[in-house]
UniProtKB/TrEMBL annotation:
Belongs to the fatty acyl-CoA reductase family. Transmembrane segments: none annotated. It holds the Pfam family NAD_binding_4. It catalyses: a long-chain fatty acyl-CoA + 2 NADPH + 2 H(+) = a long-chain primary fatty alcohol + 2 NADP(+) + CoA. This is Fatty acyl-CoA reductase. It comes from Arctia plantaginis.
């Protein structure tokens, strides 16, 4: 137990310098996000919650819109409240008890056209949002190819279309899985951080997913 307590004291000791730097509020990142309105997809996932917590704790954010869909009988408001009970928000909960006021759930679905957003919410995003952070994705390697295409490929296209319609957008950030190019022909090869040619044109596979679901089911089984 003594070693555990010693480790805990060491970690807390190092955090005080980080917290002091955050309180100064003059880092380039803090200044970049100061007063920003942000739209986030995938905010309920592991990485999404970490990202939102750090924004709330370290930056003076004006508003964060989180794309959520009703799930397992829970409304988007219920899902947001459940998400904010996560222990990852414990620190920001202590320092900023009203932090939830900055967050607003928007009903939608990354796999739908226009992200499943209502016209009102779509207009709100295009009028107000400074930053879009797109993290939503299906990461099932054994799931139907149609679902993966509509979510990961078409969903990203729809996010880019939304970003292009924004009147004051400063930055669009896309977070992708590290396994994007983990195809059999690349096993034991070095993958660099660069764009690789797509084996199938994205529009073609989207069209297959929209109109020829049986063909994609056959490909999935193979």
């Amino acid at each position: 137990m003594d070693k555990i307590h010693e480790l805990e004291r060491d970690v807390l000791g190092r955090q005080k310098y980080m917290n002091a730097a955050i309180e100064e509020g003059n880092s380039p990142i803090q200044q970049f996000f100061s007063g920003a309105t942000i739209f986030v997809t995938g905010g309920g996932g592991f990485l999404g919650k970490q990202f939102i917590e750090k924004l709330l704790r370290a930056c003076k954010i004006k508003k964060i819109y989180v794309l959520l869909r009703p799930k397992k009988g829970k409304s988007i408001q219920e899902r947001l409240q459940f998400m904010l009970k996560d222990s990852v928000y414990d620190l920001v909960r202590r320092t900023q008890p009203n932090f939830a006021d900055i967050l607003e759930a928007m009903e939608g679905d990354i796999s739908e056209l226009n992200l499943g957003l209502s016209d009102k919410d779509y207009a709100k995003i295009t009028d107000q949002v400074d930053f879009i952070v797109h993290m939503a994705a299906t990461i099932r390697f054994d799931g139907p190819l149609r679902d993966a295409t509509l979510t990961n490929v078409r969903g990203t296209r729809e996010c880019v279309s939304l970003a292009k319609a924004c009147k004051k957008l400063k930055c669009f950030t896309y977070v992708s899985t590290a396994f994007t190019h983990a195809t059999q022909d690349r096993i034991e090869t070095e993958l660099k951080e660069q764009f690789y040619p797509c084996p199938v044109p994205p529009d073609q596979i989207i069209e297959l997913a929209e109109n020829e679901s049986k063909k994609l089911e056959d490909i999935t089984e193979e």
